[in-house]
Amino acid sequence: MYDAPQDIYYCPLGKPLEFSHRKPDRRQGERVELRVYQCASCAGCPLAGKCISSKNRGGRTITRDQYAADRERHSSKMATETAKQRYARRMWIAETPFALIKHGFGLRQFLLRGKEKVQAEWLWAGIGFNIHKLLREIQRLRAKFGEQLATACG
Q1: Last residue of some domain: 43, 75, 107?
Q2: Residue 91: domain span
């Protein structure tokens, strides 16, 4: 548990993990500064086997970067039932085109190298997907109006 006003973590037994030091890191090509929190009273803890890795020799440590508060806020927002329903719908909408492009068009990896060439290849895949989608809609409308015409003339 993190207590933001005091800038301190608490372990499951309620012992404090206080700020120890800062260390630089790279995440997704961006330089971030990690704040390291350490627990001074892990020796003899009954939860140490679950809480501390077997490779760790100095007690429990937790790192926190400048985006941790944003991730926690987003995580709590996504835990609501409304967000789960919206996200499930979004996944279906967003993932279907990728699945069709991968499976239907066989585009499982790019054939070219370099950002510009990959962008061009992806653009062609998107155009192909949209033309395919347009043709399906035209077929659906032809079938619908063909049935209407047959019943009106019949």
Answers
A1: 75
A2: 81-153
